[in-house]
Design a protein that fits this description.
The radius of gyration is 25 Å and the shape is globular. It has two domains: about 180 residues, 3-Layer(aba) Sandwich (D-Maltodextrin-Binding Protein, domain 2), CATH 3.40.190; about 200 residues, 3-Layer(aba) Sandwich (D-Maltodextrin-Binding Protein, domain 2), CATH 3.40.190.10. The chain has 20 helices and twelve strands. With about 425 residues, it is α/β, with parallel strands linked by helices. A five-stranded mixed beta sheet has the order 2-1-3-11-6, with helices on both faces. Strands 7, 8, 9, 10 and 12 form a five-stranded mixed beta sheet that branches.
Length: about 425
């Protein structure tokens, strides 16, 4: 009996030790073995990670350890939501900016407005280098939930050498673009290239919509049953009906579109700034290829350009918001972000964007300085995923049914969009 009692006491003692061990293990998620703060970061692309991989940061902040991983943007939100429910999510996650409203509605993000204000108070000079888009693109209903360190619009790229051979000017409106496509569409190459498939959200469709004068409702719904929407649908129909694009473009992804342009199989395409360095590797800017802001819809005097972003959002469960802000300061620091911006995406650090070194690395940057400064952030809806699905349906309908009345298509799908407000 005595031996049994001793055995029971021993088992209980081991259980207590195990429980203590489990407590230590769970707390190590946010605090390292030496008491240092741990900030876990999910980058959406490896290209966004600074070249020094936080080496300088760790030298300057020995009390903070950054653990960086890459979770593709396409799956970042779903993975983050799932891990958030289990308490295993990172402190910072990089996402497509139009997911912010949905994430806020699920109570998964932290309002960091007070920490942003503190940064401005502590370091006004450094803070003022950051464009307002950095905070706007990571905000919802006037509260800041993260930081957009990199943003980028879609411009139009052109085979300058082909245009010159035919005596054509770079189009300033979309009717001129279609006329140029008709001339440049030959047996050797298509007049135009676009993304028509379902692999991506309708980012290119939305970008063209805004450049054509398209507007959004106060809740973030695109108003496609409008003059701009009708013109856009007709534009897609014309490209397919007149075979100015590859017939298989109806299923193309972004890679196939840019591959067509870079490979000499298309004369024009709407392509993001981040792809320009890849084009430059194959052709010389200003000689074989060039780029310009999106054309206007005929009859417009001017237009706007949408900007997209991949903000770093802060988990509502983070235990170290001050450390998170130090990571943001580091990622947006001129010396650090300059390297990423030159080889990849434009940045919201104005000092970098205005530097001679940046323009030298990206010779096209000077041609877009005014337009870039006046871009608008693509509005988003709380049900943004469904909005994008409907817009993809619109572009598919336009490419498949090229004789259908554009106004009829717009009315049908506007009704579906409006239902998302209910």
């Amino acid at each position: 009996m005595k031996k049994a009692s001793l055995a029971l006491i021993f088992i209980l003692f081991l259980s207590v030790l195990a429980a203590c061990g489990n407590d230590d293990e769970s707390s190590s998620d946010s605090n390292g073995d030496s008491g240092e703060k741990v900030v876990k970061v999910w980058f959406g692309r490896e290209d966004f990670i600074p070249a020094d991989n936080f080496e300088k940061f760790h030298e300057e902040h020995p009390d903070i350890r950054v653990e960086a991983d890459v979770v593709p943007l396409e799956q970042a939100v779903s993975d983050f939501m799932r891990n958030h429910s289990a308490g295993n999510e990172p402190d910072i996650v990089q996402v497509f900016h139009d997911n912010v409203g949905t994430m806020v509605s699920q109570d998964t993000l932290m309002d960091i407005s007070e920490y942003v204000d503190q940064w401005e108070s502590d370091d006004a000079d450094g803070f003022n280098k950051i464009l307002s888009q950095a905070w706007d693109i990571a905000s919802w209903e006037d509260k800041v939930y993260g930081m957009g360190i990199h943003v980028g619009p879609y411009w139009h790229v052109y085979r300058k050498d082909w245009f010159e051979e035919e005596g054509l000017e770079i189009p300033t409106d979309y009717d001129e673009l279609l006329e140029a496509a008709r001339v440049l569409d030959t047996d050797e190459h298509e007049g135009y290239a676009l993304v028509g498939g379902r692999e991506h959200p309708a980012w290119w469709f939305s970008s063209l919509f805004v450049s054509m004068g398209g507007e959004y409702s106060s809740t973030g719904l695109p108003q496609i049953d409008s003059e701009a929407g009708h013109y856009l649908i007709d534009f897609y129909q014309t490209l397919m009906r007149e075979e100015l694009i590859d017939p298989s473009a109806i299923s193309w992804s972004s890679g196939e579109m840019r591959g067509a342009f870079i490979g000499g199989n298309a004369a024009m395409a709407p392509i993001g700034d981040n792809i320009f360095p890849l084009i430059q590797e194959e052709m010389t800017y200003g000689e074989e290829w060039t780029a310009a802001p999106q054309p206007v819809r005929p009859g417009q005097e001017s237009n706007q350009h949408e900007i997209w972003g991949w903000p770093m959002m802060v988990s509502s469960n983070t235990e170290n918001p001050e450390a998170v802000m130090e990571v943001f300061k580091y990622l947006s620091d001129t010396e650090i972000v300059d390297e990423v911006a030159k080889r990849y995406q434009p940045t919201t650090n104005s000092e970098v964007m205005q530097s001679e070194e940046y323009v030298e690395a990206k010779p096209w940057a000077a041609d877009f300085e005014e337009e870039f400064a006046n871009t608008i952030i693509m509005p988003s809806h709380i049900n943004q995923g469904e909005v994008m699905n409907i817009l993809v349906d619109v572009q598919q309908e336009a490419l498949q049914n090229t004789e259908r009345d554009p106004a009829e298509i717009a009315a049908e799908y506007q009704e579906k969009l409006n239902e998302l407000d209910n």
